């Protein structure tokens, strides 16, 4: 992403209303240890969209786009052809350039992942919900079939700012909070996530049952009962497993629909899993949110393991090891080798230090140390 390059250009688009809103904090996004990134917030009731930049775990509006076009009919999308713009948390799937599109899509388009897993649970139908430009020769156009349309100048700004995977929150109005209230809300949401993860890792059936929605489904096809049974079996079979989360992002569509999106690293005797996890919570008015859906976007664990090995070696004052290699024997057994000069007075020529490590990445223990002289 080109956050530093674009910042000056984007801030140039701030309006008086945006400056006034800057006294508040956007309460549709919360973070913990998240890297800089961007999101789009679409506010249907005021027919505006906002480009939001997350930095130092705070959201900041860097551009407001007015006069966007939405579906011809008000309300949340339910079925194909109802000409409504869906409400929820979505992610950009790809970018379609102008030459590949019909004139009505203008300068380009960003397809969203509608219907997402929550929409499918709710039996919503339809497809082809995009952020796109407009046909400038069709000056009388006032709405879409459900997409969010921007003037082509705005779309050019978005083309430079957005990536595949950028979140798009579509809601009624932006939730603007005083800074103190924002921090209170952030603490509440993070505490809820930590409480859920603690119950899940410990296999606490009673606590989980109170936190999981009866209509729950995940991307493995499990319902609430199957999900709970699998968690309980894992907790009983692998009590010593390790689970770390990082880069927590929370996106809130309104008062009762939100998504926790974070990196998860799990290590147990039966294997290692690494990737992004998305937990979709929902609630009725006046009740606590419950988990309605879960997705896991698997990623190769090798780079994460290598990073954790390097962090472990740095703690052992091995510096930045040369010719480092890592061989995983089991999820909790590793052999690590790297070139290293012997300690002063050791009476050995430079060679390769070989460590046998036990434990999951992040809690390594040295089982043995070997040395092989270089030829």
Automatic annotation (TrEMBL):
Any GO molecular function: transferase activity
Annotated ranges, domain L,D-TPase catalytic: 40-171
Keywords from the UniProt entry: Cell shape, Cell wall biogenesis/degradation, Peptidoglycan synthesis, Signal, Transferase
CDD domains listed in its UniProt record: YkuD_like
Gene3D superfamilies (UniProt xref): 3.10.450.50, L,D-transpeptidase catalytic domain-like
InterPro entries (alphabetical): LD_TPept_cat_dom, NTF2-like_dom_sf, Transpep_catalytic_dom
Biological processes, Gene Ontology terms: cell wall organization; peptidoglycan biosynthetic process; regulation of cell shape
Superkingdom to which the source organism belongs: Bacteria
Family: Belongs to the YkuD family.
Pfam families: YkuD
Residues of the active site: 132 (proton donor/acceptor), 147 (nucleophile)
Listed name of the protein: L,D-transpeptidase catalytic domain
Range of residues in the leader sequence: 1-21
This protein's pathway: Cell wall biogenesis; peptidoglycan biosynthesis
């Amino acid at each position: 992403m080109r956050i530093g390059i674009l910042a000056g250009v984007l801030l140039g688009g701030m309006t008086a209303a945006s400056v006034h809103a800057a006294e508040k904090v956007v309460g549709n996004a919360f973070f913990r240890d998240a890297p800089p990134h961007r999101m789009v917030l679409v506010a249907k009731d005021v027919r505006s969209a906002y480009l939001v930049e997350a930095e130092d775990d705070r959201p900041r509006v860097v551009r407001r786009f007015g006069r966007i076009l939405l579906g011809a009919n008000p309300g949340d999308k339910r079925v194909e052809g109802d000409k409504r713009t869906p409400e929820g948390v979505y992610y950009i799937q790809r970018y379609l350039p102008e030459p590949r599109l019909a004139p009505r899509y203008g300068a380009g388009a960003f397809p969203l992942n509608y219907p997402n897993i929550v929409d499918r649970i709710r039996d919503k139908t339809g497809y082809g919900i995009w952020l796109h430009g407009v046909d400038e020769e069709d000056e009388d156009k006032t709405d879409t079939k459900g997409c969010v349309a921007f003037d082509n100048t705005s779309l050019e700004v978005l083309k430079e700012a957005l990536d595949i995977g950028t979140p798009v929150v579509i809601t009624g109005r932006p939730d603007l909070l005083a800074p103190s209230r924002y921090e209170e809300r952030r603490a509440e949401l993070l505490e809820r996530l930590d409480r859920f993860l603690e119950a899940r890792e410990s296999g606490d059936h009673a606590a989980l049952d109170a936190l999981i929605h009866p209509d729950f489904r995940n991307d493995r096809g499990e319902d609430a009962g199957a999900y709970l049974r699998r968690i309980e079996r894992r907790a009983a079979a692998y009590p010593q497993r390790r689970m770390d989360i990082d880069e927590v992002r929370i996106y809130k569509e309104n008062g009762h629909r939100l998504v926790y999106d974070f990196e998860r690293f799990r290590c147990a005797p039966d294997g290692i899993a690494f990737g992004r996890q998305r937990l979709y919570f929902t609630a009725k008015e006046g009740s606590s949110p419950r988990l309605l859906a879960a997705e896991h976007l698997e990623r190769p664990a090798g780079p994460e393991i290598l990073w954790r090995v390097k962090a472990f070696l740095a703690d052992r004052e091995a510096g930045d090891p040369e010719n480092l290699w890592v061989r995983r024997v089991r999820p909790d057994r590793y052999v690590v080798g790297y070139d290293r000069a012997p300690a002063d007075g050791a009476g050995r020529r430079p060679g390769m230090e070989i460590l046998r490590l036990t434990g999951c990445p992040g809690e390594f223990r040295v089982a043995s140390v070997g040395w092989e002289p270089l030829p």
